[in-house]
Amino acid sequence: MNNFGTIFLYECKKVFLKKIVLISSLLCILTIVFSLTVPFQGDYYVDGVKLDSNLNMYLKDKAYAEALDGRIIDQALIEETVDAYRKIPQDPDRHYIVTEEYQTFARPYSEIFNIIRSYLNLPTSEVMYSWEPNEKEVYESRRANLEKDWENLRLSDGEKQFWRAQEEKIVAPVTYRKTHSYNEILSVLQTVGLAVLMIISICLSGIFSGEHQRNTDSILLCAKNGRLRLYLAKIAAATAFSAAAATLFFAAVLLTVLIFYGADDPDASFQLIYSHCSDPITCAEAVAIMFVSLLAAAIVTGVLCAVLSEVFKNGVAVIAVMTALFILPMFVSIPAQYRIAAQIWNWLPFGFVSPWNIFDSYTLPIFGVHLTPWQSVPILYAILCGVIAGAGMAVYKRAQVKGR
User: 20 to 30 A from 178, CA-CA: which of 157, 254, 341, 357?
Assistant: First the structure.
């Protein structure tokens, strides 16, 4: 046990080669593939009427999106889109999607229409029948809606100025690009993130507690390197496993999307799929940001789980605590009126692995510089990892002295 590298590799082998790791990883990857391919299965119904198979629906929408790819969403395209939708008869007894007019005239413009509607934040029927097409109003409405969101979130004047400056960097009118693949990645991020954190918690729950339960800790703690090196090796192994889990499952998402949806333009504006975001980034950059955010959340969760394993000395107790932390954000939310508490709550690992928190409008001001969540949270997590690992080391040393 004189070489840290040897100890580290041995601890990695103990964690990575567990049967539960192999089984849970396989199940998670199969779940990812299934969830991303569900849209192709079965038939598409509206009000009990079968329109087509889901696969054919997707293929048609993909062809329509490709036909529009590269067009600027300006006054001409907005008028063209609204004119196509106004060919749909106003029939309160039928959903407009089932009409022949929608399938023939409007559906080829559905992607553009959805962007216009999200920017305006108006009901579908109002945009279809009473709104007068106006390019300037579309983009100004998006900005006005963002201002309302910032006010509701209790952003400071400095934060508002920061986001206004970021908005100036976003090109308008925006150029439409097909973004089906990016939409799918966005839609499964939270589910995949929670699955990664859960697997980390289950697989690392025994990294320290296992030694106590097998009564091998008395031997290890008496060994020459049974203190600092062994502890650091276990923490490093937990970090490596967490990073590997996040990378593996995110790679599974990307590969599945690439196979079934194809590769879309990496330079597509992120505002095409997430209009509430004011970061001047492309869809490809957003995917990279989501991966780094998931990686950071996974690592801090892994370190926390390892330390709890030493604190409780019982793997089941660790899993119970971590599961409670996963479930709690699903039922508890903190109103924006409690600004600091809401920001901290949204930035905890179990809630942060979601697009709306990664690309949230809350910022971290440092010496007059405003850092966005995806810029600041990984840094905070790195600091938190050090604090948690340090606290765990204090518990580990005390257990040696007083527990024997």
Answer: 357
Angstrom distance (rounded) from CA 25 to CA 15: 13
Return the number of other C-beta atoms located less than 10 Å from residue 388's C-beta: 18
Q: For residues 244 and 250, give the distance between their C-alpha atoms in angstroms, rounded to a whole number.
A: 10
Q: Hey, what are 226's tokens? A: 């049974």
DSSP codes of every residue in 281-339:
-BHHHHHHHHHHHHHHHHHHHHHHHHHHHHHH--HHHHHHHHHHHHHHHHH----TTSH
Q: For residues 8 and 233, is the Cβ–Cβ distance under 8 A? A: yes
pLDDT at 403 over 80: no
Q: Give 129's contacts (C-beta < 8 A, 6+ positions apart).
A: 86, 90
Run of H or E residues at 34 = helix 19-37
With contact defined as beta carbons under 8 Å apart, do 53 and 42 qualify?
yes
The C-alpha atoms of residue 226 and residue 47 are separated, in whole angstroms, by 67
Question: Which segment of 303-307, 370-374, 398-402 scores lowest on mean pLDDT?
Answer: 398-402
Q: Are 86 and 103 in contact (CB under 8 A)?
A: no
Amino acid in position 36: L
In angstroms, rounded to a whole number, what is the distance separating the alpha carbons of residues 282 and 286?
A: 6
Residue 206: predicted pLDDT: 84
Q: Which of 376, 364, 389 is nearest to 300 (CA)?
A: 389
Asked if residues 292 and 374 have their Cβ atoms less than 8 Å apart, the reply is yes
Dist CA 262 CA 182 (whole Å)? 10
Say how far apart CA 357 and CA 300 lie, in whole Å: 17
Going through 185-274 in order, the beta strands assigned E by DSSP cover none
User: CA dihedral in degrees (74, 78, 79, 83; nearest 10)?
Assistant: 160
Q: Residues 342-390: pLDDT tens digits?
A: 999 999 998 899 999 999 999 999 988 999 999 999 999 999 999 999 9
Does the structure show a pLDDT above 60 at 52?
Answer: yes
